[in-house]
UniProtKB/TrEMBL annotation:
Task of the protein: Catalyzes the transfer of a formyl group from 10-formyltetrahydrofolate to 5-phospho-ribosyl-glycinamide (GAR), producing 5-phospho-ribosyl-N-formylglycinamide (FGAR) and tetrahydrofolate.
Pathway assigned to this chain's UniProt record: Purine metabolism; IMP biosynthesis via de novo pathway; N(2)-formyl-N(1)-(5-phospho-D-ribosyl)glycinamide from N(1)-(5-phospho-D-ribosyl)glycinamide (10-formyl THF route): step 1/1
UniProt domain Formyl transferase N-terminal: residue ranges: 1-184
Protein name: Phosphoribosylglycinamide formyltransferase
Gene Ontology molecular functions: phosphoribosylglycinamide formyltransferase activity
Origin species: Streptomyces pseudovenezuelae
Active-site feature positions: 111
Length: 202
């Protein structure tokens, strides 16, 4: 299977996928990353992709006349690589109906909180501020909401009294990377279907 990964930041989730595929081999893992896209330049995630010899592309909202034109451009940039599965690994933009028309049902996102709790761009900070005793990460299919799509897998992480946002996020990312690698591999090796809010992986 062909994967396109979308990033906006450090790309450690992307790196975890790259390392696992390198370790197990494309055939055994069931997928290879064919391109990496971003919504901004100059991020470590793109540097990781280039180091791995992968094609990259950048679609910046400000380069387009409207959000809809950006969404279409992103969909076309991804389509050019003919992916079977698109993975948002820290991609910090909400895609629109054009992108979902093409990739809905095969577009996976990872979120650093236990959805439906703490959706949005500050899930780690919000859980900490709320005083949650456990939080974690969620891998889900993207639908037309914000972090509202059908859940595929979740991992739990304890919140410690001494945690600040970055310490907690780092601990979440340790779980998140493993969960994402495991889920993407299973989706790649088996078929899946979505029945309402239920995800069935054969
Ligand atoms: C991940 O925790 C992701 O869930 C969140 O931002 C982080 C991205 O980390 N949206 P990285 O860019 O994969 O290192």
């Amino acid at each position: 299977k062909r994967l396109v990964v979308l990033v906006s930041g450090s790309g450690t989730n992307l790196q975890a996928l790259l390392d696992e595929i390198h370790r197990t081999g494309v055939t055994a893992y069931g997928a290879e990353i064919v391109a990496v896209g971003a919504d901004r330049d100059g991020i470590e995630g793109l540097a990781r992709a280039e180091l791995a010899g992968l094609p990259t592309f950048v679609c910046r909202v400000k380069d387009f006349g409207s959000r809809g034109e950006w969404d279409t451009a992103l969909a076309e940039a991804v389509s050019a690589f003919q992916p079977d599965l698109v993975v948002s690994a820290g991609f910090m933009k909400i895609v629109g109906k054009e992108f979902l028309a093409r990739f809905g049902g095969r577009f996976v996102n990872t979120h650093p909180a236990l959805l439906p709790s703490f959706p949005g761009a500050h899930g780690v900070r919000d859980a900490l501020a709320y005083g949650a005793k456990v939080t974690g990460c969620t891998v889900h299919f993207v639908d037309d909401g914000v972090d509202t799509g059908p859940i595929i897998a979740q991992g739990v992480v304890e919140v410690r009294d001494e945690d600040d946002e970055s310490a907690l996020h780092e601990r979440i990312k340790e779980v998140e990377r493993r969960l994402l690698v495991e889920v993407v591999g299973r989706l790649a090796r088996n078929g899946h279907r979505i029945e309402g809010r239920k995800v069935v992986i054969q």
